[in-house]
Amino acid sequence: MEVVSQINGCSGDTAGKVIICKAAVAWGPGEPFVIEKVRVEPPQKMEVRVKILYSSICHTDLSAWKGEDEAQRVYPRIFGHEASGIVESVGEGVVDVAVGDHVIPLFNGECGTCRCCQNPNTNTCEKMGVNPMKSTMVHDGQTRFTTADERRQPIYHFLNTSTFSEFTVLESACVVKIDSEAPIKKMTLLSCGLSTGVGAAWNTANVEAGSTVAIFGLGAVGLAVAEGARARGASKIIGVDVNSHKSTIGKQFGITHFINPRDSHKPVHEIIMEMTNEGVDYSFECVGGVEVLRTAFLSTHIGWGTTVMLGIHTTPEMLPLHPMELFRGRKVVASIFGGFKGRTQIPHFAKQCILGVVKLDEFITDELPFEDINSAFKRLVDGRSLRCLLYL
């Protein structure tokens, strides 16, 4: 006989039981989220069920919710991938985390055994890497969410995580334990935005003291890049954004110069050339537009300039570069999750954050109850927040 537990907190013996809780369900592209009760199955082999405490909203959630990439249009679905929580129960074979551990989800997992995980030069994972097409669990190809009514309609997963729910089930490779003494609210930022931006500066580009940097797009990820470059001692950090308000915000994260492309008839890369003695050492494209990517590329110094691509490109447009342009020494690389191996390296990064190596508080601009998720999305669309934390 099936055992069901209706729960709002993490009290009581719920291991092995179906949990009925609240989740924000997306029923179609761009449709308002519906807060409703869902059934969350117990974790199966190599899976972990987590009580989500905080979940924030990233632009990746926004673009997926809008259905900008038709290939990702799988509904109904529970979005969300930047969060923090406590392990409620674990499935067979799980040894890296235990009930009661403080954890953050990893949209870019680390199985630890594949050839990529064994290679120190990549944070790609052949088995559990980021995959926007994946909507079910590996163990049996089924979902762990269904509607709580008599229909028992499957609700699909998103980016290995699905954190817009009071409880979620993840592959154990997509969960990392963090120090229980760390401020768990702030640790939410490490499961995507902060790690992606800071890591791009530290791991992918390896920004050196005294180097020059240009960042295109000053959302949370772009500002995290700035924070990472500031922490590394970059001498000049140029922020580029069409929102002039980002000039003031950017100063908090190390932006030394600001350009609004709408304020000048001169191409942005020419302005940057003049400001930096023929180009920056590193540029970061955090928008997801091919023309912005080309501008970022042209803004780097010939001979050694590196452009790091972080923006998500949802259109089928190809890179706007002529192959011969690469023979002048500039290069373009992409960065997923800031180059961090999630389970191996994030615990150390968390300790650095706690010690104040990079800022955390300034990224949290709003806190709202989970039920206000639609308002939180609107704030992001309107450009009024960096990270809005939803508390569950």
Describe the protein.
By secondary structure, the protein is an alpha/beta fold. It folds into two domains: 4-191 and 360-391, Medium-chain alcohol dehydrogenases, catalytic domain (Quinone Oxidoreductase, Chain A, domain 1, Alpha-Beta Complex), CATH 3.90.180.10; 195-335, Rossmann fold, CATH 3.40.50.720. Helices cover 22% and strands 23% of the residues. The chain contains ten helices and 18 strands. It has helices spanning 59-66, 115-118, 184-187, 193-204, 220-231, 245-251, 268-275, 290-298, 342-354, 373-381; strands spanning 4-6, 18-25, 34-40, 47-56, 82-90, 102-105, 145-147, 154-155, 167-171, 175-177, 212-216, 236-240, 257-259, 282-285, 306-309, 331-334, 364-369, 387-391. Strands 4, 5, 6, 9, 10, 17 and 18 form a seven-stranded mixed sheet that branches. Strands 13-12-11-14-15-16 form a six-stranded parallel sheet, with helices on both faces. A five-stranded mixed sheet has the order 1-2-3-7-8, with no helix packed on it. Strand 11 (212-216), helix 5 and strand 12 form a beta-alpha-beta unit.
